[in-house]
What we know:
This protein is α+β, with helices and mostly antiparallel strands. The protein has helices at 47-62, 64-68, 73-81; strands at 10-17, 24-31, 83-84, 87-88. It is flat, with a radius of gyration of 14 Å.
Amino acid sequence: MAARKPAKGKARSKLVKDPKTGRTRKVSYGQAGEAKGGGPRVRPGTAKGDAYCARSAAQMKKFPSAAKDPNSPLRLSRKRWRCVGKKSKR
């Protein structure tokens, strides 16, 4: 199955299969576009990455169901930023 385009305003998408029902759903995540200087928006290991990881760590506490689901947009974005706790690793 070919990957689908992400939803409007989102950078990436992932097709996820539900093991119970066998249905496939599309999960879109990440902010689309480029950074201010024209480079990549996601730069792990930077101060910007640390700020994102600290912000999203609070979201993990606020939304435990999203924190438990490995295919939630929150978890997929944190993986892309390489978050470990409140820090972004290179």
